[in-house]
Each structure stands twice: as C-alpha cells, then as structure tokens.
Amino acid sequence: MSHQLKSVRRASAISTLALICLAPLWLSTAQAQAATSEAAKPEAAASQTAEFSPPVDPDAAIPTYKIELKDGALLPETLVVPAKTRFKLHVTNIGTKPSEFESNQMRLEEVLFMGMDATMTVTPLDTGEYDYFDEFQPGVMGKLVAKEAAQ
Description:
31% helix, 33% strand, Immunoglobulin-like, 9 strands, 2 domains, four-stranded mixed beta sheet
C-alpha cells in the first residue's frame, strides 16, 4: 500500500473519530437551543400583551422612547409603542465601541461613536413587529412592537 493511501485512510479515521466524539456536543447544543427557543415563546406572547413602553417625557407632544447600545447589547430588546402614532427614538451609545443603529423596516440608520446620541423621528407605523439591530455587532437584534391601544 502506498504512503499516500495510508495518509488518506489515517486522515479519514481521524475525521470519523472526531465526529463520533463531537457529535454529542453538537446534539446537546442543538437541544439547548431548542429548549431556549421553546422557553422564549411564552415571552414573545407576553410581549404582545404587555403595556406600552414608557416614553422619556410622558407630557411631550411627540412621545420619545429611549434605546441604548452597549457593546453588543440593545436596551431594551423589545420596545412597545402605539401603532399609527408618530414618535421619536432617542438612541444613545453607552458602550466602549462604535455602533450603528439600523432598521431596514423603519428606514432608520445612524452611526454612533462612544458617548454619542441621536434622535430620529419615526413616521406612524402599522400594527406589527419591526426589527432593529446594531450593524457593527452581528447578531445583536431588537424588536419594536407597534400595537393598537386597548379600547
């Protein structure tokens, strides 16, 4: 048997062994992710029935809601606002890295260096969910929920 064929078989055996050893870790990770997503479903339902998020100044003519960016975290992760109402978002970067607040659905985008803030006016939104994220930190997502006021 040639030396190259022995090397290929050895590499194949090592790959197989690695798969056998690591498969339980991958499965447990997948099971953990599934359990996390199942646990998040009641939270999502609760956020739908939650009251509106408090504006910064309740007496202002146009309500303003605060969002903070902090090194890979969006605070709050879910913001609930009245549908069909114009409002403002006051976004502040309280982290130690530059951030970019962005929402394609609301057509908003703002680069914020450390310690900076920006206020953006949002046109009235239909009832629904709108994503926002920090484009400089992949995977950091937030959700704005526009819902009708209870009658």
